[in-house]
Structure formats: C-alpha cells, structure tokens
Amino acid sequence: MTGDERVREAMERVPREVFLPEDVRGRAGEDRPLSIGHGVTNSQPYTVRIMLELLGVQPGDSVLDVGAGSGWTTAILAELTGPEGSVLGTERLAPLVSPAAERVASLGYRNADVIAAPEGTVGTPDAGPFDRILVSAEARTLPQVLVDQLDDGGVLVIPVEGEMLRVRRTGGDIATTSHGRFSFVPLIEG
Question: Are 4 and 53 in contact (CB under 8 A)?
C-alpha cells in the first residue's frame, strides 16, 4: 500500500464530524476549513491529506502534532502510527484542549493524547525527539526549536509564510523542500 493510500484510508476511518461543533457537523463532507470557534478552523481535508502525505508517517513512529485544534489530525496520525506508535497533540488555546483530548479518547486511541502546549516554546522539547512533526499553523520563519525536536531521519511539515515546507533531518544536515502555497491561522510562538 502506498503512503497516499494509507493516508486516504486513515482519513476515511476518522469521522471528521466527531471533531466539529454541533452547528457545523452537517458540513463535515465539505472540502473546506470549518470553524471550531476561538478564531481557528478544522483544516480543509485536501490540505490535511497533502500534509500527511508529505509527512510520511510509518507504523511505530513517534509524532508531535502542533496546533492540534479539534484533535482530528491527532486521531488520523494515531491511525497512521498504529498502536505501536505514539502521537502527542499540543494546543495553545486552552478551551480547545479538553474537548480535543476527549474526542480522541472517545474513539479509542490509546496511543494518542492532546495536551496544553507548554508556555514559552513551540512543541514539547522535553518530550522529543520525534520521528515526525506536523504543524497546522503558519510560522513567520522556520522554528529552530521544532527542527531541534526531530530525531535523526525525522520529518517536519510546516507552513512558513504561506509556503508548505517539508524539513528532513539527517544527522546534522537539514534538507528543506517547498510544496506549494497554503493559508493557515498564525502559529503562536512562545
């Protein structure tokens, strides 16, 4: 099975509507971002698929999901890592954390959790390193603190100044490739 097929199947197994507020659940099948309140959205499925394909999650991977929002991507990542992997979703907006964690748990994902993002930094430096890091908010520049949280061979996918970047760490070398223009809410850094 290709990575694209794995992503498609994982997205099909995680019902988007569960991660949406009641008033927009009927629109879960729309290929567009949908508001989850507090000025943030549940990302467009097309965009999520592209990001996950670029991320290349493998069974057993340790994954950090920065800007977990509703918890939808955290659950999809849990599908991709399988029970032998782990996913840690972080969210800066406090009112979103508990509902996201509850939704992920309600679907039976014991390999995933959503927590409040630690103050003063991006990601969770004390919990790494990670095989994969997904960022669902737009940074002004590539955050070195996230690159530092990658394990050797790790991959980071992040929108920076509207451009989707894939960053791969190999030893001390960092390779960055660009994969098109996308629009996201701003990343809260620090």
Answer: yes
Nearest of 16, 111, 3, 109 to residue 57 by alpha carbon: 3
**CB-CB contact of 133 with 56 (8 Å):** no
Q: Other CB atoms closer than 10 Å to residue 46's CB: what's the count?
A: 11
Whether pTM > 0.90 for this model: the answer is yes
Helix (H) or strand (E) holding 55: helix 45-55
Average the pLDDT over 167-181 and give the result: 92
38 vs 104, residue with greater confidence: 104
Strand partners of residue 164: 159
Q: Which residues are catalytic?
A: 43
Q: How confident is the model over 33-65, as pLDDT tens digits? A: 888 988 888 899 999 999 999 999 999 999 999
3-181 homologous superfamily: Vaccinia Virus protein VP39 (3.40.50.150)
- Could you tell me the residue ranges of all domains in the chain? 3-181
The β-bridge relationship of strands 150-160 and 130-135 is parallel
